[in-house]
Amino acid sequence: MNSNLLMLPLAALAVVAMGGAASAQMAPYYDPTTVPAIPDTNNTVFVTGTATEKVEPDRVMATFAVETMDEAAGDALRANSEAMNAVLATLEEAGVEENETHTAYFSIYPTYNYTEFGAQELTGYTVTNSITVESSNLSNVSDWIDAAVNAGANRVDSLSFTLAEDRLDDIRGGLTQDAIDNARGKADALAQALDVEITGVKSASLFDFNSPPVMPLSVSFAAGAAESIATPITPGEQTVTATAGVVYRIG
Asked: Which domains does the chain have, with CATH numbers?
């Protein structure tokens, strides 16, 4: 019998044995006393509390704009300035104080026509000037809109009812305590259901307040197109919401 053929299986067996020995030598060893303990989170509960309040707004913000177009930039600007000066004067006559208005946006930009071959042809210029009225006089908003449009404003870009900062701060103070009380009530009910007791507070956080939203409004008119019928505007009520998250210890 050929001795070389007998040596091949023996050699293969030796390689396998050596590989197994190497694996055994490389196997990691863990000392149970050195493994870090898993943090104990079973002795806490997390709940959120919410508090809301409906309030009537005490501030109004309205933005009026005049947009004019002409072949020459100077002519478009001149027409726009005349119309905006008329709008400002009319609003002042309607009861808007001088310190209640400010410029919101102003621009002059060219306008083009595009041919079927992609070329552009300058057709003129567009001038836009917008002002914002911010006031605590909510009862005259309808009159201001009608007066501004009749005087030359051809856009009402936005209208919103909000709360003054000092009043909003007072509301937030009350809602914070109410939200925490609401969270504690939920935690007590949960603890009773689990047959445990609340032993303390581990952490707490107050989420952002949901302030009264801004009502977007974008309306365009032909200059002087408003009719004599008053524009109906109703502020309604706004909802302010606070949410608190609290982690309670239980035992």
From this structure: 59-163+213-229 (3.30.70.2970)
